[in-house]
Amino acid sequence: MSPLLNLLSLGCRLFLAGLFLYAAHDKVLNPQSFAWDVARYQVLPVVLVNPASVLLAWLEITIGGLLLLGALTRAAAAWAGLLLAMFIGLMVYAGFTGAAFDCGCFPGQEGHTAGFSAALRDLWFLLPALWVLRVPGTWLRLDNLFWGED
Amino acid sequence: MWIEESKRSLTAPFLGILALAAVLGLMFNLLSPRGIPWQPEELTNPLWREMPLAEARQLQGGEVLFVDAREPELYREGRIQRAVNLYPREYELLVRLLRPQLEKAPRVVVYGNDYGYQPAAYVAQRLIREGFREVYVLGTSFENWRKAGYPVAQPRRGGKS
Question: Is A47 part of the contact surface with chain B (CB cutoff 8 Å)?
């Protein structure tokens, strides 16, 4: 694989890792607050809100960690893509329902309103996930130690 | 072809990541002091009582303090007349500020969305745990209060209410 493609894959992978770790750390440390964020969308039955919010926060941080280490890289990128696709759908739904609240995507409560602009932002984030899924690269990956290059 | 190949090679690690996240989340939630209950205690073991819409309307105007448990963005867009805003995320701060009003009110009726009594049930439960006795959860949402034609406060042109 050419150095340019490897560099691009590494850049996309580290960007995604940073994105997911940044987004997830507050959700993991403040699970109650994140559960309220999830509840606000009113798309899950109330009984599922707490378990789903804990799972989602830990899924995000696991994906971020694996992408950072380059372990199970393609599967982690697939999860990143799946979650981002789900978030895009949720933001579009929020846009249609006229939700005016913070999307709960990142720490802090200002400047991340749920809706179409957040969907567009997530669409951009989806691109590096799809790239890493297709071209995971070979640089700085733990995968290389265990399974060789793919 | 690439997709078929990927499906085969990705299925096991894909499910492995899900299992790893579930185990980590479960462990952390059990061990962390910030862990949350799997089911909200205010719904599994409610201390509050429900107040029907018509009864709440009858009491409006002195005998009851309405507490809007929704986020401030929604509160600003419209609320029951003279309702105060006390929502879960800023509960500790706001309850201190509102304490004089809450203590003076003969009854407190908390309302929220039409979503399994939330977030009103959470706020009502905490108020009762802090010693407020006559705390009720409105049996319906703010939207249904509005649809019933009961008095609401809404922003005037220019955004202020």
Answer: yes
Using a CB–CB cut-off of 8 Å, the residues of B that contact A are: 2, 6, 9-10, 13-14, 16-18, 20-22, 24-26, 28-29, 32, 34-40, 43, 71, 73-74, 77, 88-89, 113, 115-116, 118-119
DSSP symbols for A77-121: HHHHHHHHHHHHHHHHHHHHHT--SB--SSSSSSS-BSSHHHHHH
pLDDT in 10s for each residue of chain B, 161 residues: 666 666 668 999 999 999 999 999 999 999 999 999 999 889 889 999 999 999 999 988 778 999 999 988 889 989 999 999 999 989 999 999 999 999 999 999 999 987 778 899 999 999 999 999 999 999 998 989 999 999 999 876 544 44
Cα of first residue to Cα of last residue in chain B, in angstroms, is 60
Q: What is the mean pLDDT of chain A?
A: 91
Helix axis angle for B91-104 and B120-129, nearest 10°, is: 70
Which one of B25, B32, B113 has the shortest CB-CB distance to A55?
A: B25
A81 is written with which tokens? 């893509």
Please tell me the pTM assigned to this model.
Answer: 0.85
Residue found by looking up tokens 């299992």 in the block: B19
Residues of B in contact with A36 (CB under 8 A): 88-89, 119
| Residues of B in Cβ contact (< 8 Å) with A55 | 21-22, 25
A67 touches chain B (CB under 8 A): no
Asked whether residue A24 carries a pLDDT value surpassing 90, the answer given is: yes
Q: Is A39 on the interface with B (CB under 8 A)?
A: yes
Q: What is the mean pLDDT of residues A44-59?
A: 94
d(CA A146, CA B6): 18
* Tokens 């199970």 belong to residue: A72
| Other CB atoms within 10 A of residue A104 CB | 23
- Helices A46-69 and B2-31: crossing angle in degrees, nearest 10, is 110
